[in-house]
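User: Let's play a game. I give you a shape written as tokens, and you guess the letters that built it. Ready? Here's round one.
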């Protein structure tokens, strides 16, 4: 199970929702991704997103952005960003590169602050084994 899915399983009982925002191919037609060109239609973007979900065995929602990429532009255009939005709709945590250990720490802080009677400790330590999302 991908680490992102493990995070979801850990925090979903604490009213945390997870999703992937699919915006574009980060490495179109490069090395291991030769079969994936940059999208030329929304249908192609949708098909690539569905294939990504299947290849990665994702069980959380994958949201495909509009074709004009305005949302991606407004978020910073990087391919692997991570955001945590609190219940008031404010950005609690933002990273320019997804790091499961830091996401775990930020989520633990957020849900513990939301309900101090049910503290959560960060439990991911992928640095020691070199695992990413």
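Assistant: Ready! My guess for every position:
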């Amino acid at each position: 199970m991908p680490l992102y899915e493990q995070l979801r399983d850990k925090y979903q009982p604490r009213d945390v929702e997870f999703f992937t925002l699919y915006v574009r191919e980060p490495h179109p037609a490069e090395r291991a991704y030769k079969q994936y060109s940059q999208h030329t239609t929304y249908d192609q973007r949708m098909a690539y997103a569905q294939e990504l979900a299947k290849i990665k065995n994702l069980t959380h929602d994958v949201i495909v952005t509009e074709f004009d990429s305005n949302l991606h532009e407004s978020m910073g255009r990087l391919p692997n960003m991570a955001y945590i939005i609190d219940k008031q709709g404010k950005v609690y945590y933002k990273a320019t590169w997804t790091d499961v250990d830091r996401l775990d720490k930020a989520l633990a802080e957020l849900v513990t602050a939301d309900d101090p009677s049910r503290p959560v400790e960060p439990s991911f330590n992928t640095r020691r084994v070199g695992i990413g999302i």
